[in-house]
Amino acid sequence: MQPPVDHYLFLSALLFCIGVAGVVTRRNPIVVLMCIELMLNAANLGFLALGHHLAKMAGQMYAIFVMAVAAGEVGIGLAIIVALFRTRETIDVDEVTELRL
Amino acid sequence: MSSHALSFLVLAALATGTALAVVLHRNPVRSALYLVAHMLVLAALFLKLSAQFMAAVQVVIYAGAIMVLFLFTIMLLNLGAGEIERKRFSVGFISAVVIALVLAITILGGAVWHRGLMQIATPVRDLRMGGTAEAVGFALYDPELPWLFAFELTSVILLVAAVGAVVLAGRRR
Amino acid sequence: MTGALVQLRTAGLVWAIPCLPLLGFLAWTFTGGRLLKLFGEKTGKRIVGGLATALVLASFVLSILVLLDLLGHEPERRRSVVPLLPFVGDVPWISVDTVQVYFRGLVDPLSMLMCLIVTGVGGLIHLYATGYMAHDKDYPRFFAYFNLFIFAMLTLVLAESILLMFVGWEGVGLCSYLLISFWYEDMDNAKAGNKAFIVNRVGDLGFALGIMAILATFGTFSFHTADGKGFLDLASQKLTANGALTAGTASLIAALLFIGACGKSAQFPLHIWLPDAMAGPTPVSALIHAATMVTAGVVMVSRMSVLFVQAPAVMTAVAVVGLFTAIFAATIALTQTDIKKVLAYSTVSQLGFMFLGCGAGAFAAGMFHVTTHAFFKALLFLGAGSVIHSLNGEQDMRRMGGLARYVRGTYWTMIAGWAAISGFPGLAGFWSKDAILGFAAGVSGIGMALYVVGTITAFITGLYMTRLIAATFWSSPRFDEQATHPHESPPSMLFPLGVLALLSIVGGLVGTPWANRVEHFLETSLPSASLFAPHEGVPVVAGLVIGGLVAVVAMAAGAMLYGSRRAIESESRNAFAVGARHLWYVDSAATATFVRGGGRFATILWKAVDQGIVDRLVNAVAFVAGLLSEIGRGLQTGYVRVYLTTMLAGLVVMLLWAFMLAGAK
Questions:
Q1: Which end of chain A is less packed: N or C, by CB atoms within 10 Å?
Q2: What is the pLDDT of residues C551-570, one digit of tens each?
């Protein structure tokens, strides 16, 4: 028998929060992006679990689109990082404070 | 304990472990590799959920394309320097961890609070339902459902992303 | 008198009476300078001045035609309402709910009398001004203002509604200001213009309130309407828009209107602007501050006479204020050394006489005096202008003297004016003053007191006028005859003097007690006998004899006291003389209280209120805004991770909230 949906959702939430912790804590921008990927994957897991549980195709549909958009987002994100840190000495997110008031 | 429960537990533990490794490792390259592992574990979980198509796509796209892109960028552009040592338990670090924990508790607590989600559905044998590529295809390309339009839009998004990446990362003439 | 309105054959001409001078104003404003450039200065000035005068005289001719038409009807029916806008007919100016105001004129004896005076005497003064102002560089501007004034004054007297009259009222006030400050480069002239306008404004407040009271009481601004609903129609039947007209209401309206009249006609305490108004060119003083504008108050009171006679207390006040002003100004005139100032205070005094007559209920007598005063006062001012002109600008009588042999024409016309104003038997002033004093004596209770004080004032009048004539023309010159060659004025100035002298001599004969054409003529415009009838307090002959004696004795006494060469230079030390010389301190009191007090008040408002309170408040608001911004700024650290953390915190809060709400259901 399948484990109840609770468990999948619990796991999804846990992975999501791990991802959040990573985003907030790490200072290397690449790692931050990777943690964002963690969050997205956790969300996908949740979508699919619920979709399976409620017997709807919507879950998989959402998951597909999340994946597609994540792909695009990673491309742009990496391009930004490259552009931003190309001319700097450091690769530290804390050093980029141009938008400070 | 049933085989399902056991396999789930193992896979959950692996997923959590790799995720933690991604977050905690100093070296970005190592983090990236752990992320690849994490995605493969998730693909297995997807299989458990009878989402076969999604599992395949996860491996091919996520692990195969996106993570490869990550690794290429890290290595080719030499952005993989380790982070400078700094105080492990600084204020920022602690507050970040605290907030993440709070978030977790909130989400999970809320989920527990609302047990209305917990009806058990009986799976129905239907070609259009399920995790097969066929089923996904029926759902995705059905003109009466909204997903077709979203699909087309996604292609535009990807085009924009590709163009944007070229513009942003390209060298100034 | 109530009566239906008649249709005049000349109704189509009336609009031209005020509009011809208006045309002149527009023409000289826009083309004056160009004409001078086009035709050269001398010819250009001739064209401008000549046409300006011609326009006024054309209005005079039209006024005569309309008057003759009016006289063709029986006395009770001499009233007509005509449209004042050419070609467009009867366009309403204000049309709100139940109140309609049109650009209409009221043609009746009172308005036509004033039209004749304004255009007739006005035309003569225009002619005089072409000579007097001939060397002025702002010639076209002068005649533009002069024509505009005639237009405004005619609007005032011809108005069919009190609102339109107020428009004319304000218009003449404006022109007075413009003309007093005509030579505006001199700051004192500008200040005099300001003083005139501002003091007038005080009176105008009363007038405006009175107009509002009229609307509230009678529901209309019109004097007379075809259906008998004009407020003068209603008032003469002792009615209001709904119900009876009480003495209280009539008194309120009359009192407010009288305040307005005091402002315009320079009665105490609003008289202070008139002597300062002498800063303007002499033709201005003659036309505006002697013959026409200042009499507007008397005209207005006479027009509203049906209201006034139903407010006995106000009538008494009018008479008393008028008489007090008369004697007050007369004493001051006795001490002045500037020839124009003497005449200015004399005007104030004579205006007081007119109000005395009105207050006694003898509005016809008051208007009679307006007419005769227009003749001899304009004459005296124009003559004074001629003297000033001959001495190249000298106005101080202590530097005149012996001019009789130099300016013959001016001298003899001035003699006529002097005799007329002093009340020499048979001349114009004699009859009109006698009428006023006679009716004043007939006021119940205080009549005799009024008569005695009035007669004393007439005596003083004779005195100060004789002093003026003596100082200016008699004995021997107190100036260097070789340096200034006094020369006679050109014909353009002498001709009006002659005409006015003639009118001053015979002009009073229409108002003798035995054949008072004036009273008979004005009957239609004044209250009917059933409403109020003034009566003589002294026997007719006795009054004439006393008046004549007083005049002759005053003139003789004046000749004795002031005939010597040095008389004008002596300054008496006794209390009366000192007080009078200082204008009885009214001007200084007004300056100290209102001008300086106002300045101090304004400074307080500036420093304490505007800077202290308002500015501080505004700055405080800005400061608070800045403070909040500084706080907000703290959020923009520039650190990505801080932003993320903040976002997450917000997310947590929202989730908690959502769960709370969901839980509460």
A1: N
A2: 999 999 999 888 888 887 77
B51 vs A50, B5, B37, B128, C213, CA distance in Å? 12, 18, 19, 13, 92
- Listed residue (A37, A28, A22, A36) closest to A85, CA to CA: A28
Q: Is the pLDDT of residue B140 over 80?
A: yes
Inter-residue contact C175 to C208 (CB < 8 Å): no
| CB-nearest partner of A23 from C638, C639, C644 | C644
Report chain C's mean pLDDT, rounded to a whole number.
90
**CB under 8 Å to A56, separation ≥6 — which residues?**
none
What pLDDT, in 10s, does the model give residues A75-89? Answer: 999 999 888 887 777
Among residues C346, C340, C344, C345, the alpha carbon closest in space to that of C397 is found at: C340
What residues 28-57 of chain B have any CB closer than 8 A to a CB of chain A? 28, 31-32, 35, 38-39, 42, 45-46, 48-51, 53-54, 57
Residue B119 has pLDDT above 60, yes or no: no
**Nearest residue to A40 via CA among C92, C438, B19:** B19
Rounded to whole angstroms, the Cα distance separating C81 from C225 reads 8
List pLDDT tens digits, range C518-561. 888 888 888 877 778 888 888 888 888 999 999 999 999 999 88
pLDDT 10s digits, C191-217: 999 999 999 999 999 999 999 999 999
Which position has the token pair 């420093």?
Answer: C607
B50 to chain A, closest Cα gap in Å: 8
Q: Is C222 helix (H, G, I), strand (E, B) or coil?
A: strand
Say yes or no for a CB contact (<8 Å) between A24 and C633. Answer: no
Helix extents (H) in C181-226: 187-218
Interface contact C640-A24, CB threshold 8 A: no
Closest in C648, C656, C659 to B99, CB measured: C648
CA separation for the pair C131, C629 (Å, rounded) = 74
Cα C122 off chain centre by:
14
CA distances from C98 to A74, C141, C220, C449 (A): 78, 42, 8, 47
CA distance C364 to C358: 8
Give the pLDDT mean for C333-347: 93
Task: Average the pLDDT over B38-62 and give the result.
Answer: 91
DSSP state of A95: G
Give the pair of three-digit tokens for residue A79.
């391009």
Contact (CB<8Å) A34/B77: no
Write the CB contacts of C646 (distance below 8 Å, at least 6 apart in sequence). C635
User: How far is A65 from chain C, CA to nearest CA, in Å?
Assistant: 23
DSSP H helical ranges for C219-246: 231-236
C81 membership: H or E segment, kind and range: strand C80-83
